[in-house]
Amino acid sequence: MDTWRELSALVEERLKAVSAGERGVFAAGVAERLMSWREALPEDEQAPFTVSLRLC
How far from chain centre, in Å, is Cα 35? Predict the structure, then answer.
């Protein structure tokens, strides 16, 4: 098994072991990190749709 599959299986196992609320907090944290990364790009490299999601 390659490293990516092993890591994916480990994450899946850990997420199954926690409550739905904890999974939601994890997902929100990941989304925030990705959105912050996108917003830090130069304006001409930002995807308008992605950045507009912050306003929702």
Answer: 8
